[in-house]
Specification:
8 strands, three-stranded antiparallel sheet, 4 helices, rod-shaped, three-stranded mixed sheet, alpha+beta
Length: about 230
Amino acid sequence: MFSKKVGKTIYAKPSNKGKEDMVKKLKKEETEATKDLRDRTGEAEAGAISGDWGEKVSNTTGKEEEPMVKLQEAESRAAENYDKYVRAVAELDNYKKRAIREKADAIRYGNENLLRDILPLLDNTERALEHACNSDDFDAFKKGLKLLQDQFLVCLQKHGVEQIEAVGKDFDPHIHEAMLQVESGEHEESKVVDEFERGYLLNGRLLRPAKVSVCGRSKTEDQQDCEKDN
């Protein structure tokens, strides 16, 4: 190795050995850079492959889980509907039992209000009998009986019972029961002459017909009609 002085600047001329060392160094650096690039490229490709595989696995898992979710939802709805059905059946059964019990109570205690109103009349009847046994005043006894009758009629009217008017009315087979047919100069034909037993209506419906006698055509009227026809 030698140096050549040109002016004030001195250049050193490299030897062959120096050149070889420099070439080796450059090749080594190039090899390391290439290796590093390959390593980085491999990592990138591996990451991409791993991402794609993970996405595929995720999609596959999602597709497999979707029917299971729907099945669980259907089972939940079925259980809820069955619970509602069981409750409805139980409520219906309780309603039937309650309706049967209420109907039986209505039949058994349906006359409770009527009987409660009749009891005071029974008390008054006992007082009237006691008074009649200790008194000879027949007029007072009659007045007491009349008072009891009025109280009893008021009680019946309170519960929808009313008397049927019969005497002097036209005979109505819907509310009257003819017991006799009589001749009467004071009544027209088919008029009620007398009443043997009172009839009653319950809220407008026949409770008992009135037993009555009815005025019929007299024999004299029949003879007069026959003479007119002849």
